[in-house]
Amino acid sequence: MVPRANHPGVTLGWWLAAWLTGVPVWANPVESLEFHLGKALFERNWVAAPASTDSADGLGPLYNARSCAGCHPGGGRGRTAGPDGSPGPALVLRLSLPGPDGPGPEPVYGAQIQPLAQPGQIPEGRLALTWSETQIRLADGTPMMLRRPVVTLRDLGYGPLDSRALTAPRLAPSLTGLGILEAIPETAILARADPRDEDGDGISGRANRVRDPVSGSLALGRFGWKAGQSNLAGQVATAFALDLGLSTLTHPAAAGDCTPRQPACLAAPKGDSPRHGGVEVGTEVAALVTGFVRALPVPPRRDPADPEVQAGAAIFLTLGCASCHLPDHGPDPGQARLYTDLLLHDLGEGLADGWTEGEAGGREWRTPALRGLGAAARADGGAWLHDGRAQTLLEAILWHGGEAQASRDRVMALPTSSRAKLMRFLESL
Amino acid sequence: MPYPRLLFALTLAVALSPSAAAAPDTHAVLSHYADLAEAEYGDALGAARALRQAVDALIAAPTPATLAAARDAWRAARTPYQQTEAFRFGNPIVDGWEGKVNAWPLDEGLIDYVDGAVYADGNPENPLANANLIANPRLQVGGTTVDGTTIDKTLLAATLHEADGVETNVATGYHAIEFLLWGQDRNGTRAGAGDRPASDFDPAHCTGGHCDRRAAYLKAATDLLIDDLAWMHAQWGQDGAARRAVVEAKQGLTMILTGLGSLSYGELAGERMKLGLMLHDPEEEHDCFSDNTHRSHYDDVVGIRNVYLGQYRRTNGTELTGPSLSTLVAATDPAADQALRRRLDETLSRLQILVDSAEHDGVAYDQLIAADNPRGNAKVQAAIDALLAQTKAIEAVIAALGLGRVALEGSDSLDAPSKVGP
């Protein structure tokens, strides 16, 4: 038996969430049969080609993980490192090389380092993780240790990287609420954009325009740390290609992120099947996984009516956090509020890693949604921001700079009790 | 006086009609539901004890006959257990425990030798996927060395099961025992199950190596199964936590129907059947070492019927009956009750076709879902369709009982948006 990553705990968690809200799991509108199938495919461990069946194979030849859930357990965010401190599959290293038409893949290693390889193939290398720490003090005297990851590559399988290559560590983010973000009308997002800060509030907010891998045309970027993806189907297809080495109609290369400088990888057995339109992951399977991601429920809020939480919400507003962490794009009763404007903002040098995507510059990041923070923190502690550097929500706030510098400084200056209320509010989300 | 006599006759007729006569109160239905669970887990426990005797006989004298008897005992133990799956999703206490006894799928290379050509490199995300405890008394688990010289219940349950936090490290339960009794099924979607020889348990003429350790593993895993089933059986006893949770719950009927609906729909029709059919993948087969999948699916459906109809045929042949959900529904909405009972019959007959295929035509479940078997695929799809129709009928019953739906997310009171709006 080749295993599928079965997650009884996750199943139980989803079930309990439904139970706590009084809804039978299968009676929940999101829990259609398609949702269940999508969930099973999301958790499925793909196998190498050729396998005993041609529907289940095609992993790699180079890959980061065998299943979606391997990096997004339960649809949530991954962990930077395992118990022994070595990086897990959820932390990937993206690669790019500046070019005349914008950044392109690194000529040998492609768009991403894949540390795992099918038998007979050479792995690209492994990530080694150390932390560089700085201590700061809050206004009330509380010392805080801020750490930044230093990712180096070991055991490179195909020689050194091009000296001009940019590397960017990225942590697999939580996927909950993406369906809600996808449904926000483009006009509502663009209405919030203020690229030249004409209202003079110190907050600009730019919409990213990216090449849609499905349609091939330019579209509003919504997903990813830099809004580099315009729709969920494209996001899922890109993850299949880069992380699992599985081809789809959108990314039909059976060898995934293999480059012409990796000929053995290109020559490896493929899992494409005529029954699936000549690719490894056919339209039906890709649509089920996309549908599952789209329908992932956001966890219920905890104690939203608690006076401390309410007081924290007021502080959140007063400090200006909601300028970018916009609760919603207009009242939509029955829909969870995610706290993002889906726009790019300059967050300063502290977070910058020079990586660009579409129109997003090296210091710019798309406002991440805050909904689900509390549930994630309670489930497995902390690993926040694009590379998982922040171990607490307060650390994540303290990394904000650029347009968010003023709000961040106000958090630094908060009296201890007010800061606790702000944290209570964030943990209630 | 004809008129009063007519009235009397009418009264009698109403009193004898099934809907009016037998409308039990909710508490009696919940209590009988717990009685059913107690009986079914009791039978699963008894069958596991019989399996232990067959395992002892196999280890005392490993022959093809004693191995076949142990496999029969495993199949017999599976039947009452699969019927209890109808209690799983509605009851958190069962759902939280279920992974100990029925976790699946597994990285079987953790336990024993596997065929490298079929198993490939195991599971690269699981450092223990090829640990092979039976051959290796010393294992590295999460950076520490585990002394596995003695294979006992504690080693399996506390150290090895879900070791390193990897859920495919299944060291205990029915499927670990199944793997020990059958070995890998290396036939893909072709005919044949696992074919482990009895000599794998014979230290005097040992095949596969380490036969004494394999025997110790089999004994320990079976003992652990007995312990776990005894624990769950006690939870449904007169003062048991599972019984109290459902009998005292305000939403007891919702719990019951949640279990029936979830098993019918997402679990059985979805993950266990439709997924494998869609991918034509024998690895998605539930009892994949033994090719017993047709039977385990069938018994799931029997379990759902047991709960709705309030009746259970025990392993010893006696029939347990009592106040049923069916009668409760019939008192409110006879049409909804009749529709669900018809659907339950239809599903059972569709599953019977899969059983007949495996047991009479020699076409096992993994062959039915093969890509080149459109007729087999159609049989499985018909069973899935019947389960979907059954789910609709369960939804209608929920509506008939007025149990309703609650919105999952985002009411103003839940989100308090007015307090946090910009």
End-to-end distance of chain A: 40 Å
Tally of contiguous helical segments of chain B = 18
Secondary structure category of chain B:
mainly alpha
Over the alpha carbons, how many angstroms does the gyration radius of chain B reach?
24 Å
Mean pLDDT of chain A: 87
Would you count the extended β strands of chain A for me?
10
- The span between the termini of chain B is 80 Å
- Summarize the amount of helix of chain B as a percent range: 55-70%
Strand and helix layout:
The complex is a heterodimer of chains A (429) and B (422).
Chain A: H1 8-20, H2 33-43, E1 62-63, E2 91-96, E3 116-117, E4 126-137, E5 143-154, E6 166-171, H3 178-183, H4 186-192, E7 209-211, E8 218-220, H5 232-244, H6 263-266, H7 283-295, H8 307-318, E9 344-346, E10 364-366, H9 373-380, H10 393-398, H11 405-413, H12 416-428
Antiparallel strand pairs in A: 1-3, 2-6, 4-5, 7-8, 9-10
Chain B: H1 2-16, H2 18-21, H3 26-60, H4 64-84, H5 92-102, H6 116-119, E1 138-141, E2 144-147, H7 153-160, H8 174-182, H9 211-235, H10 241-247, H11 252-279, H12 293-309, E3 311-313, E4 319-321, H13 325-332, H14 334-359, H15 365-368, H16 374-400, H17 412-415, H18 417-420
Antiparallel strand pairs in B: 1-2, 3-4
Short description:
The complex is a heterodimer of chains A (429) and B (422). Chain A has 429 residues and is of the alpha+beta class. Chain A is 27% helix and 12% strand.
Features:
A: 429 residues, alpha+beta, two-stranded antiparallel ribbon, globular, disordered N terminus, B: two-stranded antiparallel sheet, 4 strands, 3% strand
Structure in words:
The complex is a heterodimer of chains A (429) and B (422). With 429 residues, chain A is α+β, with helices and mostly antiparallel strands. Chain A is 27% helix and 12% strand. Chain A has a two-stranded antiparallel ribbon with strand order 1-3. Chain A has a two-stranded antiparallel ribbon with strand order 2-6. In chain A, helix 2 packs across helix 7, helix 5 crosses helix 7 and helix 8 crosses helix 12. The N terminus of chain A is likely disordered. By secondary structure, chain B is mainly α. Helix content of chain B is 61%, strand content 3%. Chain B has 18 helices and four strands. In chain B, strands 1-2 form a two-stranded antiparallel sheet. Chain B has a two-stranded antiparallel ribbon with strand order 3-4. The radius of gyration of chain B is 24 Å and the shape is globular. In chain B, 54% of the residues are buried. The interface between A and B is large, with 73 and 74 residues.
